Structure formats: structure tokens, C-alpha cells
Amino acid sequence: MAGLNFEATHTDNRDILKIFAAEGVEFLLSCEGKVPVSECNGKIICLFFTANWCRPCRAFVPRLVELYETLRKRRINLEIIFISFDRDEDGFKEHFKNMPWLAVPFDLNLHRRLIDRYQVDRIPSFVPSCSDGITIEEDLIGCIEDYGADAFPFTRKRHEELKGIDIRKREEADLEELLGHEGGKFLISGDDRKVPLSELAGKTIGLYFGAYWSPPCCAFTVQLTDAYNNLKAAKGDCFEIVLISTDRDLEEFNVNKSTMPWLAVPYEDRTRHDLRRIFDVKGIPALVLIGPDGKVISVNGKLMVSSYGAEAFPFTESRIRDLEAALRKEGEALPPQVEDVKHEHVLKLDMAKAYVCDSCKKQGKFWTFSCDVCDYDLHPSCLEKVNKD
Ligand SMILES: [Zn+2]
Ligand SMILES: [Zn+2]
């Protein structure tokens, strides 16, 4: 799956080795000790500029280790060489402990010269030795964070290819392709049953991006559960939700999942990460709705559900337009202001996302009669008009 023509695009790595020779670098370090530079002959070399004092660097190292190990398993002859931005040798050693690849021995002057030669102005930076490699400015680090080992051979062409695959996946939304993973074509239920993806065929699907640590997500989970249960009761099995978790660990994921009546993508699965990127999910909670035909209906399902609950089904634009029109009509039928026997001030017709009715103490949304003087709300249905006669 890694680009088949990488040998053509990767220039001879003698350039890097030549620079090392010119700078007097005779050996590199591995976790076991000194390694002659000549061991890199014939390998695809990438330089990794990073420092232990830098948090984004420390966070990136495990992602790069994963990539390195995956590519080695694919028998790609890759070598990464760490060039340190650390200010002292202790930081360098501490950082290098976490890396399975090679390092240029700690030497502040030498590091500075190499940093200048490669014009590295930020860390972490990853510099592949190929002629059309993604440059530091084009954000190869971001590309690796997004695509992991699939980013290999780190060329612009490969990056364009990957973006094209994402667009196709988003537009075709083939559920088996979107939600399938290396472990197989199944999801898991709140009580840990494996549910085959084929059971989703013909249904409207909500991809719910959320996490247990996020209070807005927990609040939305309550609304979504309500809508889900109402829909199941009213329309049967036409709708399903799949949790795409951004929980911090498996334990938290299990707690999160156990509070939900729907399905989830297994936590171990990279698909969770891929789906966030494919649907460009920037914040949570988010709900992406996919129709029975496999086409994306909306990426803004959260607003639909929090506004209209189960009523929003099937979540199409025309359905939302109808709901909005009905709401407008309801408002037009109500008086702009009223006097109620239960309250001493005049009440004005108002629109609120959510309120509690001060008469029946129950939740309300949209139209309310509210008081400008004190914090008082009344369901239009709880109104008892003052009899003026
Ligand atoms: Zn009421
Ligand atoms: Zn009042």
C-alpha cells in the first residue's frame, strides 16, 4: 500500500551522508551504542529534528515510533536520524530513550550547523530525503499525524492521493468501508456484543463524535438518547447511532459506551481517528448523519437533534424547513403579550432554546411567555389569561 514507486522519488541519500561527512559526523548512536554512518548506505533516510523540552515533540514521538515499526514490518528500508534541539545532554538522552532509531551524537555546534543547513525553523520537523518530499512548511508532521504509516513515502503526490481517498470515502460513505477496520467488519454494543456492519444496511446512521470527559457531550448524550428511544418506539429499526469516541483511554471509553443504547467503533481501532479526519470534525459533540442510500445528509446533526429531537427525523433539509415553518405558525397564533393570573407583570412572547416553566416546573423550548422584570417563564399552554370583563 505504500507507494510502489518510492525508489524513483527518493533521491540517493548520499546527499545527507555527504553533509554528515562534510560536518565530520563519523558515527551515529543507536540505543545499543555507536553505529558507523556507513550503515545508512542504501537506506531511505529521514531526519527528525526535535527536543525533549518541547511538549508537541514529546507527544509526536510515539506516533513516529508506530510509523517506524509499521514500515519496518512492511520491509521498507527506512532509517530515521534524530537531530536534537535540546540544550543539554541530559535532555537529549531522556528524549532519545523513547526512540528506536539513530541519533547524531549530542554536540551543540554540530546540531546548529545541521539545523542551518536544513533551514529548520520549528520543531518537531521531519525531513525526508526525497526530491518531491513534503516540506516543513507544507506540514509533513501534520500529514503523519493524520495518516500514520500511510503517509509514506512522504511525497506531495502521496499526500494528494490520501486526500483524494478521504474525499471519495466522505462522498460515497460506504459504511463497510468507513466503519470496517483491521479487526473486521463489526461494531460493538454497550454490553460488548459484536454487531456485524451488515445490520446497518438500509438505515439512517448517526456518527456520534463524543467523549465522556466532555460535559457538553454528556449533556448531548442525554438529548440524543431521548431522540433515539423515541424514534425506536415510533418507527422501529430505521435509525442507528455509532459512537466514534475521543475518550482518553479504554476504561473511560467503556464507561462512556455503557451509558449509551447504541453501537460503537472499537476503541483500539484507528478508524476512530480516520473518521474524524474524513468528516473534518473540529469539535465535540458532533453528529454526522448518513442516509439509507449511503449519502451524507448533514454534518450538523447535533443542532437538529438538540432543537427538534426525534421530530427531526429523517433529518433532511425539507423536514427541518417544515418544522421551522410549523414553529413560525405556532408563534403567529400567539398574542405578543399577555397578563396571566399567576404573575403580577405583563408577559411577552419570546423564543428560548430551553427554559423551565415557572407554573408546571417542566422543561420547555421555543415559544415562551417571559417576564422582562423578573426571571419568569410560562408555557403558552400553561397560560391562564386575566379576565378583563
Ligand atoms: Zn408549564
Ligand atoms: Zn415578573
Topology:
Layout: H1 6-9, H2 14-22, E1 27-30, E2 33-36, E3 44-50, H3 55-73, E4 78-84, H4 89-96, E5 102-103, H5 108-117, E6 125-128, H6 140-147, H7 156-172, H8 175-179, E7 186-189, E8 194-196, E9 204-210, H9 215-235, E10 239-245, H10 250-258, E11 263-264, H11 271-278, E12 286-290, E13 296-298, H12 301-308, H13 317-332, E14 337-339, E15 346-356, E16 363-370, E17 377-378
Parallel strand pairs: 3-4, 4-5, 9-10, 10-11
Antiparallel strand pairs: 1-2, 3-6, 7-8, 7-11, 9-12, 12-13, 14-15, 15-16, 16-17
The structure holds zinc ion (2 copies).
Residues 357, 359-360, 362, 379, 382 line the site of one zinc ion (ZN).
How would you briefly describe this protein structure?
With 389 residues, this protein is an alpha+beta fold.
Number of structural units classed as domains: 3
Mean pLDDT over the full residue set: 90
Gross CATH architecture of the largest domain = 3-Layer(aba) Sandwich
Using the coordinates above, name the CATH class of the largest domain.
Answer: Alpha Beta
CATH topology name of the largest domain, in short, is: Glutaredoxin
Count the E strands: 17
Overall SS class? alpha+beta
Order of helices and strands: HHEEEHEHEHEHHHEEEHEHEHEEHHEEEE
Distance between the termini: 83 Å
Helix percent band: 25-40%
Bound molecules: zinc ion
Report the CATH superfamily of the largest domain. Answer: Glutaredoxin
Number of helices: 13
CA radius of gyration: 29 Å
What spatial form do the alpha-carbon principal axes imply? Answer: elongated
Low-confidence stretches: 1-12
**Biggest sheet character:** 7 strands, mixed
Query: How much strand?
Result: 15-25%
Spatial strand order of the main sheet: 8-7-11-10-9-12-13
